[in-house]
Specification:
heterodimer; A: alpha/beta; Rossmann fold; 2 domains; 3-stranded parallel sheet; two-stranded antiparallel ribbon; 7 helices; 7 strands; 41% helix; 16% strand; globular; B: mainly alpha; 20 helices; 78% helix; 0% strand
């Protein structure tokens, strides 16, 4: 069913024209319009230039964005951070596995360190071990980034999120999570979804 | 069996009708306002059924008359000797080739895929009933035209009536052989990807079909009767084998893979193209680049795609060179050829618009750029900043022009040299105009393709073609270039006009790219 989550991300990322409204971001209590450089968008399917090696892709990315990247590290440090094995770093991206491509895509977006990071269905294509690594990594970086991610897996949302919104028939609805435990939140989410359907 | 034929026909009709309705809904202006409930509208279904039945009937006859007209009637005039014998000769040998090229049974079509794989219909019943039906169509479709044309060219009525049956027997014999072979080797032959042996046989039969009449050696009606009796006897055995064969399900499971089925279909075609283009990335890891930023990026792209980018341009250049060598020898040896060539060179420059169009690698190169590079990179925000888009455009334009100049330079030098050797011209400007206009055309096409790609980037993230404008522009380009074949103009004036046009077009196109590409160069949604 088309619920519009990809459309929502596309709007935020200015991939499609929005009919009305504006996006704002609050920066040290100052509200300003969302700009292109604020946003990083990681698609659910990995998209990497297959003819480059992992190292070359990072080198190119850093070359282009040198002025914007805060506290630049070496390429190998970035690889270490993303837990990409040394023997894989000089392979063509074409020969990377699905999960590894996803890691690379995530990595360049993290290097750019945008204020707002959009993740479409993250972690779904990772194996168990990598998914756990990624989850940890997202927990680490969420302190100084706004991360919006979409998922169909409720456990993941409950595990990672400070706030949960439900997107149904093009409307966003916030789930109140104050002072309640996971089970109760779960019930509220399901209730909210059922109600929407009955309308 | 009849029941399963009716079922499969209904199934085929349903999606035929649906695709008719779908294309109505795709029409600009009207289409948008039509509701989805159209698909369940009874009247439209009936209308669709009528259209689809009419098209089925037209298809039965149209294909056959076109075949006979183009493959046989059109060429008969070339041969001396007995026309009746030539007619039957070409028909027989083309049928032998066609039996392998067009089996009906082993063409991996959507129809078969839907019916046998998705709907799980009984493979044997489905295949046999549809096979008999298509053979019936062959007979009915051919019969009027073999009789009309055959008798017109002097064949007896009996021969004309037997000819379509000959085709059916040949096809069935070959099909039974494929089934027999599948039983032994467990490999099924896909009619769309013939093996080298099959290609050689097909080519052999085609050469015999046209070559022998050329040398005045043909079969006669009597020999045809002998061949017919042989095909009849073998055909009966083959029909029996086909009817009793048990492994249809297995055979089709291995034939009707999604790759085979969808390769002929547009929606998935691009995926197959992408798969192929990805395979073109060369693994040599030693290729590196000392450049920086997007120049580094582009440099590596070019180096890792050398084959797909350069090979064909090199080949064309060598071919052009050889053709010029042959022509030089020819004009030196024969003064008639020399005179004619000189005349052609002075009036037929428009013809080279089409030649330059054909040899231009723009489509393939931009396609490779998209499939292996932009498809993934355009999802990154930084890649879509005006600075990156335009710098990369510049790098790519340089590369594309370079690739296309390789064969263009050979032609651009070859033409004036040929002109000089065939007696030259009074106006020396002609030499220069020939050279410059060919170079200008080459650069023009390079710019044209790349600019179109940047302004109309037609694909979405799933590599589906989303822009009909892009297709339209490609068609227009083709037709305009093709139309130039008909034009005869003095080289001097046409050449000068071409040069001016190319320069103006290039300037305007580049301005447009610099102005609009940052907006238009993105993945379609």
């Amino acid at each position: 069913m088309e619920l519009g989550k990809t459309t929502f991300f596309n709007c935020l990322n200015e991939d499609i024209e929005i009919d009305e409204g504006e996006f704002y971001i609050e920066d040290s209590n100052k509200k300003r319009k969302l700009e292109a450089d604020d946003v990083g968008y990681v698609l659910s399917t990995p998209n990497v230039p297959e003819f480059l090696t992992g190292r070359e892709f990072l080198k190119f990315f850093i070359d282009i964005n040198k002025d914007k990247i805060k506290n630049l590290k070496t390429i190998d440090e970035y690889f270490d951070f993303m837990k990409i094995e040394e023997e894989d770093r000089d392979k063509l991206l074409k020969d990377y596995s699905h999960g590894m491509k996803n890691k690379m895509q995530m990595l360049v977006n993290i290097i750019a360190s945008p204020n707002l990071l959009l993740l479409d269905e993250p972690l779904t294509s990772f194996d168990v071990v990598v998914a756990e690594e990624m989850k940890q990594m997202l927990k680490d970086i969420k302190n100084n980034h706004i991360i919006i991610f979409s998922t169909h897996i409720m456990e993941l949302a409950l595990d990672l999120c400070d706030e949960i919104v439900i997107l149904n028939n093009g409307l966003l609805e916030k789930i109140d999570m104050d002072n309640i435990d996971k089970e109760e939140t779960k019930e509220r989410i399901i209730m909210a979804l059922k109600e929407e359907k009955n309308v | 069996m009849f029941k399963s034929f009716i079922l499969s026909y209904k199934l085929k009709n349903t999606y035929r009708v649906n695709s008719i309705i779908y294309s109505i809904k795709q029409l600009p202006l009207i289409g948008k306002h039509l509701p989805a409930s159209l698909y369940s509208s009874k009247i439209l279904k009936i209308l669709g059924n009528i259209i689809s039945t009419i098209s089925e009937i037209i298809n039965i006859f149209l294909g056959k008359i076109i075949y006979i007209l183009i493959m046989i009637v059109a060429v008969l005039g070339m041969f001396k000797g007995n026309t009746a014998n030539n007619f039957i000769h070409i028909f027989v040998f083309l049928s032998l080739a066609g039996g392998m090229l067009n089996t009906y049974m082993f063409n991996p079509t959507k129809d078969k895929y839907y019916a046998m794989i998705l709907m799980n219909m009984d493979a044997k019943n489905y295949t046999l009933s549809n096979y008999y039906y298509s053979m019936l169509k062959v007979i009915i479709g051919f019969l009027p035209f073999t009789i009309i044309f055959g008798m017109y060219y002097g064949l007896s009525l009996i021969t004309c009536v037997l000819m379509p049956f000959f085709v059916v027997f040949i096809k069935t014999i070959y099909n039974s052989y494929i089934l027999y072979d599948f039983n032994k080797s467990k490999k099924i032959k896909n009619e769309n990807t013939p093996t080298r042996i099959v290609w050689t046989l097909i080519a052999g039969f085609v050469i015999l079909a046209y070559g022998m009449p050329f040398l005045n050696i043909t079969i006669t009606e009597n020999i045809f009767y002998v061949l017919f009796v042989i095909s009849l006897l073998l055909g009966i055995i083959a029909f029996k084998y086909v009817a009793q064969f048990k492994g249809y399900k297995k055979a089709y499971k291995s034939l009707l893979t999604t790759d085979n089925v969808y390769i002929t279909q547009n929606t998935k075609k691009s995926e197959v193209i992408q798969k192929n283009t990805l395979n073109q990335i060369e693994l040599d890891k030693k290729t590196t680049s000392n450049k920086k930023g997007f120049a580094y990026f582009h440099d590596l792209f070019v180096k890792r795609h050398k084959k797909i980018l350069m090979k064909s341009a090199k080949r064309t250049a060598i071919m052009a060179f050889l053709i010029f060598l042959i022509l030089i020898v020819a004009v030196k040896a024969n003064s008639n050829i020399s005179r004619e060539t000189n005349e052609i060179l002075m009036t037929m420059l428009p013809w080279f618009v089409f030649v330059m169009y054909i040899i231009n690698r723009g489509t393939v190169v931009t396609q490779a750029m998209f499939m292996n590079c932009d498809h993934s990179m355009l999802t990154y925000r930084f890649y879509r900043t005006p600075k990156v888009i335009l710098s990369l455009f510049k790098e790519r334009l340089k590369t594309l022009i370079k690739i296309n100049l390789l064969p263009a330079v050979v032609i651009a030098i070859g033409l004036p040299v040929l002109l000089y050797l065939t007696g030259g011209t009074d106006n020396y400007l002609n030499y220069i105009v020939l050279f410059v206009s060919i170079i200008a055309m080459s650069i023009f096409f390079s710019i044209h393709y790349l600019v179109m790609y940047y302004l109309l980037q037609p694909y979405n993230v799933n590599i589906e073609m989303k822009s009909s404008t892009y297709t339209l522009v490609q068609w227009i380009t083709y037709f305009v270039c093709y139309a130039f074949i008909q034009v005869k103009l003095p080289t001097l004036y046409f050449g000068l006009a071409t040069i001016i046009f190319c320069v103006l077009y290039s300037i305007i196109a580049l301005i447009l790219v610099y102005k609009y590409a940052p907006k238009t160069f993105k993945l379609r949604i």
